[in-house]
Amino acid sequence: MAFRVSHFILITFTIIFAIVVGATTASKAPKLVNIINIAKFGAKPDGRTDTTRALQSAWASACSSNKPATIYVPTGRFFLQSAYFNGEHCNNKAINIVIDGTLLAPDYRSTRNTGWIRFEKVTGVSISGGVLDGRGNDLWACKATSGGCPTGATTLEFYGSRDIVITRLTSINSQKFHTVIDGCQNVKLQGITISAPGNSPNTDGVHIEHSSGVAVLNSQISTGDDCVSIGPGSSNLWIENINCGPGHGVSIGSLGWSLQEPGVQNVTVKSSTFRSTENGVRIKTWARESNGFVRGVVYKDLTMVNVQNPVIIDQHYCPGERNCPNQVAGVRISDIRYENIHGTSANVVGLKLDCSKEHPCSGIEIEDVNLSYGNGRAHATCVNALGSVASLSCLI
Ligand SMILES: *[C@@H]1O[C@H](CO)[C@@H](O)[C@H](O)[C@H]1NC(C)=O
Ligand SMILES: *[C@@H]1O[C@H](CO)[C@@H](O)[C@H](O)[C@H]1NC(C)=O
Question: What is d(CA 107, CA 50) in angstroms, rounded to the nearest whole number?
């Protein structure tokens, strides 16, 4: 009897467990509807056969329907020469690309210097899971040893698109930028992993420009250039809970190359950690005449670990002192708030605001910024910076 009771309990528990696990798994997995498996179009997970045509066919098939569709890339390694997805004649506003496998880029000698995987004028596209391997090593070696190397391909680009969601995607060893969001609206990158060596050239993690409503959340970014770089014409950006390092930090700029340039507005960077990066949070503008601006930026709850320039505004960017005829830093910087920033600086100067003489930074707020250097506190220097704390004393 005892045996049978315990047996009964065991079975009961097993059933409950199965139901609970089943329910949890089901609610977590993306809803796969109207599945278009690229294997159906001849894709082979052998790392050699070109998958370009299979992906294009799957895209065409998804676009021909106006019901939500899932393009599915199964496990395995798929060689992909290039993929260009245009949404202009696409009837579908809900295409989910689910990747379980790895997509392998071609050798840099046979890539175009634009995007390897490029979406243009698409609406309602999501990508989840998968690994994009840009195979940048040979190109970086070329750049390190000889001139005349191609610039290389950006791994994943979205142009002129809207309502985009990218989750749990991994991008490794991009030839140039890992991801570019340009001319887009309402884009969310969540739980992504970006990885390339700290010395790989121009491998920015996420580059955003001419876009509005872009969020980068809960992501790991280790790369050779900016973890996130923000170019002209960007507004309403939200960057939260990212781990950056190695890399060059989160950078607004370089701005102000052009005289007429759209500004950067309403950017929040919060709850993030920077480890052994070149910069933490940076705003960088050319020492050139420009009507550009940066306004309404909040940097909040940040941790710096051994960062060379944890907090920096540099309005005198002009490599080689060329192309800056009057050395006037035209970009107007205003309403920048630094709040609760702690940790360690690798340099004695932990906060450096080097603003324009002609157009001083205004509305700078510094609250609870405390960085250590060695056994003491890091210093701060402020030039042409006006604001609540900065104007009284530029101490941190
Ligand atoms: C600033 O951007 C955030 C999204 O990042 C948005 O929720 C908020 O409404 C924007 N604020 C203004 C004043 O536009
Ligand atoms: C700054 O941080 C150091 C070390 O973490 C600490 O000893 C010091 O009290 C802090 N200063 C302020 C003003 O918070």
Answer: 13
